[in-house]
């Protein structure tokens, strides 16, 4: 079968590459054409464009590069029509991908699969209409999405969660001791570590890292260790780290979490990674004009929680300090509670166990690949 995949950022490149690897397992004749990145290229096939030429976030960057984005979208749509693959596979990247889905459904009989659908339960719920009309089948990695979509007349498939798989695979092959990790990274051998995961984008780090470090500095018996985001220059961190006593490690987030005693984490996949490692955490996500952001959240955002841990559990397992509540004093208060209150810490770890049970043990990419290959083999039916 011939598969056309579209991923628009680094995480999508990672997940799409894993999916391609599994598609080759279930379909030995699999051929690929894609918009994506280096990891997808490693799996073979033909790259139409690198996602870097289209990956812009935020109103102003998108506006400034709108001509480039629109040209890429036109190219993609025309290419799909010309190539006539057996299936189009979309990976996250909703603004671009939903436009492609509409075009494909309107102009061809090619089935459209969505692997890792957009988080419309949090924002832009109206996009469910496009998914109902233009997407043949959705493969979700978040178990709570099944009920949410069903309530709106769409049946999707929960296939498992790749974050759990990735962490468990890492742990199975990682044998370094805490002492060895500290010695290799020049850390204090005698102080337990507070992991600082301040986001993967420059703006997130600028907004959150100083506040997280200020909170961690109130615990002199511990050492703060920052997980440097891949692809970001060390200079982005230097000013914020200067004078704090904190250290930074690059490309070793999982190694750090394997040995950390506690963690301060911005909202995102990192909160789930931290939970799978069993590290008690405080979720912090500062936003400028925080009081306004909290008001807008009440008006427009449809979910009670922002961290994946709490969303999957359906209740508060980890504390969330969002907008102007993410200040050093509040962060330190929540961290102190984790350190001194054994009962609070045990309840959080019990909550992590509940999250793991809900995630299940299926391989997300393998399960999705089977579904997508089956869908592609039935191209044109009906």
Characterization of this structure:
This protein has 382 residues and is an alpha/beta fold. It folds into two domains: 2-160 and 362-377, 3-Layer(aba) Sandwich (Rossmann fold); 165-359, 3-Layer(aba) Sandwich (Rossmann fold), CATH 3.40.50. 50% of the residues lie in helices and 15% in strands. The protein has 18 helices and 13 strands. The chain has a seven-stranded parallel beta sheet with strand order 3-2-1-4-5-6-7, sandwiched between helices. Strands 10-9-8-11-12-13 form a six-stranded parallel beta sheet, sandwiched between helices. The protein is elongated, with a radius of gyration of 22 Å.
Short description:
The protein is of the alpha/beta class and 382 residues long.
Query: Percentage of helical residues?
Result: 40-55%
CATH homology superfamily name of the largest domain: Glycogen Phosphorylase B
Compute the separation of the termini in Å.
Answer: 19 Å
Radius of gyration: 22 Å
Q: Largest sheet, if any?
A: 7 strands, parallel
**CATH topology name of the largest domain:** Rossmann fold
User: How many separate domains make up the residues?
Assistant: 2
* Structural class by secondary-structure content: alpha/beta
Residue share in β-strands: 15-25%
Count, helices: 18
Provide the low-confidence segments as ranges: none
Q: Tell how many strands the DSSP assignment holds.
A: 13
Mean pLDDT: 90
Estimate the global geometry from the Cα principal axes. Answer: elongated
CATH architecture assignment of the largest domain: 3-Layer(aba) Sandwich
Strand order, main sheet: write it out: 3-2-1-4-5-6-7
CATH class of the largest domain: Alpha Beta
